[in-house]
Design goal:
alpha/beta, TIM Barrel, 8-stranded parallel β-sheet, 4-stranded antiparallel β-sheet, 8 helices, 14 strands, about 30% helix, about 20% strand, globular, binds orotic acid
Amino acid sequence: DLAVCVGGLALANPVMPASGTFAEGLEQVVRLERLGAFVTKTITSELRAGNPTPRVAETAGGMLNSIGIPSKGVPAFLEHTLPFWRRWKVPLVVSISAPTAQGFAELAAALDLPGVAAIEANISCPNIEADGHAFAMDPAATLDVVRRLRDATRLPLWAKLTPNTGAIAAIARAAEEGGADAVVVANTVLGMAVDTETFRPRLGNVMGGLSGPAIKPIVLRMVHQCHKAVSIPVIGCGGIATPEDAVEYMLAGASAVQVGTATFLQPTAMTDIIDGLDAWCRRRGIACIADLTGAMRGD
Ligand code: ORO
């Protein structure tokens, strides 16, 4: 049985896309109705153009991006994106961002709509403020924004944390204290790359977020720290590409997992992982995958 309960939602399986990594069009090759949940690309209230190009650079260990949350705003989301995702009858998690805590609260309040199953507060994007700064780098700022969100919506509330901190446990505790139903660990690792021919940065915005295999051990360690620090569920996100990666995250404390960069390389990565988890559980005689959460031994 692959069913899990995570952050106020009952999911048929623990696999969902990482925000921003799964665009329309993939329904041509992926059976979307098989996913545990969908997470949308982050939306904002205001129109945003996003960052200068190039916005993506490949490196040996993973992918750098500095997209900068381009957004068509709420009306386009309501008219187009929401009806698109509703078609597959899978719980829809809407990722949101705003420049202020109040802005987060107002946007969440506007999204308490039929077909929206939960809110993922993206308080950790490294590509919108100077030097990758984000709310989730600071426990007090995390507490404030999550509290305001909690007051603004009855929907299940997930807080997406940043790996760009030495205080992940304290920040996860702040999110829990503020009323989050789950923490998503984590967004991308702030990095950069330089073109040795042109001497220019390989990203238009100079710095960007690193994702993929390079960050898996880092984020896995953070999932473990958060699992020990809080009693709300932890959703793992960072370099998951195989069923074994997902199992590793669950053993370290994740209740569910998000898959991002792997989908760019293999569009069926998520459903392949679901099939692989099913086979893995059968092989090992594991009746409920939920029992894997935090089952790492020797700690
Ligand atoms: N990129 C990321 O790596 N994380 C985010 O939350 C958002 C973006 C982006 O749009 O640039």
